[in-house]
Design brief:
By secondary structure, the chain is α/β, with parallel strands linked by helices. The chain is built from 16 helices and 26 strands. Helices cover 32% and strands 24% of the residues. An eleven-stranded mixed beta sheet has the order 11-10-9-12-8-13-14-15-16-17-18, sandwiched between helices. A six-stranded mixed beta sheet has the order 19-20-24-21-22-23, with helices on both faces. The longest helix has 16 residues, at 293-308.
Length: 483
């Protein structure tokens, strides 16, 4: 139980009606979750304006309401708080409800189009290896010290986010690492959190179904850096032209990393193999179990963030050589028949290019790349022909197939992908059923070849017409390989 006026400490209040000292037993934004003594925050969502549910939540036991528009009928005994933006208010209230957990952790956020999951997970693994308790909030899973919790979205909603951070504090965690999505920035989910540092990986085309323009997408990412305090660090990839943009108007300490230019953290790729890479980072030779220049960037940002958190550079370098790849991120599976399968989450044109270029650089002469890929439904349709074109350009054989069609017709998605192909792209097949597509790719593979399954990575489902059916690329690949 907490008093309402305490919860409103950081909230810009326009008007109040009723007793601000009322005791609150819970904070909710979902009208269906209201119980006796709750504070209900009414939000104007994209699909639903929950202001319409204010009478119902009061009947269900709510004692206070935070809203942007005061209802016409004011009920006696109920406290009403009018604010300019309910979502911003919810973020601040959530922090107070859970005793500002981000201030009791060293919290680092990772943003960018690609690499967020890998970087956040490796920072968590690295910190644990060096003897500290830590938490992780990622697309794949959330972890409180050692307890894993399934992840529903890249960055949780305001209340869930603060609750998980609070549970990390209660579990004795010293550090927390989280992916910060552009949606989370735009929807103010990270408002009120105190970050010790932020990492920017890169920015390529993605989420334009939500942001509409690349400029809006960049602005959403930049919101994260603009909110950083002076005692935090801002670590950005300056090989990406947007990296320096993130530092504009950023009050935090500016630090950079690069594979190509002068930077605070510099990396050189010495040798690449399918089972690992030799790197030199700030003069230190490090052997890692990762492949690809994109992973070199991820590992360099991990090294930089760890050093900026105060860890000993030598200890960081030693422990980095023990880190293992994240599930569904360039995950390698070798077949008894002599070819190799790679499962990767690459679902943007840039990510697909990175994976395929990496494979091309390390496979033997005469070996072929067979790529299986698709595009998700109800997402940025503009990238569909681009994905197909890049796959065709960089592969010896391509099979276009379904990838979470959601509420769209999978055949129509594939037609839109095919629009990016040239007439002479005769090495491209279209097989709508993903299971059959994977099986076909494996049948075509010869010893030394590489089969790349792109788009789903760690996911264990295929979403069709709003229903999630169990489907795991890794399982299907192993079945097709006979292992």
């Amino acid at each position: 139980m907490k008093k309402l006026d305490t919860l409103l400490y950081n909230v810009n209040v326009l008007r109040t009606v009723g007793d601000l000292a009322v005791e609150v037993a819970d904070v909710v934004r979902d009208s269906r979750a209201v119980t006796q003594g709750a504070l209900f925050v009414a939000v104007k969502g994209v699909a639903v304006d929950s202001h319409q549910f204010i009478p119902a939540v009061i009947d269900a036991g709510a004692v206070a309401v935070v809203c942007e528009d005061m209802p016409e009928h004011i009920q006696d005994g109920i406290t009403y708080v009018q604010v300019e933006n309910s979502i911003v208010a919810l973020a601040r209230i959530a922090g107070e409800w859970y005793d500002q957990p981000s201030r009791r952790l060293k919290l680092v956020g990772i943003t960018g189009t690609n690499g967020k999951t890998t970087t956040a997970t490796l920072l968590y693994d690295l910190t644990r290896r060096m003897g500290y308790k830590a938490g992780l909030l990622s697309t794949v899973k959330n972890i409180i010290d050692t307890v894993e919790i399934p992840a529903q979205q890249t960055t949780p909603d305001h209340l869930t986010l603060n609750r998980l951070l609070h549970e990390m504090v209660e579990a004795g965690c010293d550090y927390a690492f989280m992916e910060v999505s552009s949606h989370a920035c735009s929807q103010h989910r990270i408002d009120g959190l105190q970050f010790a540092g932020a990492v920017f990986s890169n920015l390529t085309r993605d989420h334009l179904d939500f942001h509409k323009t690349v400029e809006n997408y960049i602005a959403a990412k930049k919101m994260f850096f603009d909110m950083l305090p002076q005692d935090a660090f801002a670590l950005v990839n300056i090989d990406d032209k947007v990296g320096q943009v993130m530092l504009q108007n950023c009050a935090a300490t500016h630090r950079t990393y690069s594979l190509r230019a002068m930077a605070d953290f510099k990396c050189r790729v010495v040798e690449e193999r399918l089972d690992g890479t030799s790197l030199i980072i700030n003069g230190k030779s490090i052997e890692v179990m990762f492949t690809g220049r994109f992973n070199a960037y991820n590992l360099l940002s991990v090294y930089g963030a760890a050093v900026l958190l105060g860890f000993d550079p030598e200890e960081v370098a030693v422990n980095m050589s023990l880190l293992q790849p994240v599930d569904g991120r360039f995950q390698t599976i070798h077949s008894p028949q002599g070819y190799t399968g790679i499962v990767d989450y690459a679902h943007t044109p840039d990510a697909l290019v990175n994976v395929l270029d990496t494979v091309r650089d390390v496979i033997g002469k005469g070996a072929s790349i067979i790529t299986v890929c698709g595009c998700g439904g109800n997402r940025d349709a503009g990238k569909r022909p681009i994905m197909a074109r890049e796959a065709a350009k960089r592969s010896d054989k391509v099979i276009l197939t379904s990838d979470n069609p959601r509420n769209e017709d999978p055949e129509q998605i594939l037609r839109e992908m095919q629009a990016g192909l040239d007439e002479d792209d005769r090495h491209v097949l279209t097989i709508t059923d993903r299971r059959s597509a994977i099986a076909t790719a494996c049948m075509l593979a010869q010893p030394g070849d590489v089969v790349v399954l792109a788009g789903k990575g760690h996911e264990t489902y295929q979403e069709i017409n709003g229903v999630k059916h169990h489907f795991d690329d890794r399982e299907e690949l192993k079945k097709a390989m006979g292992i």
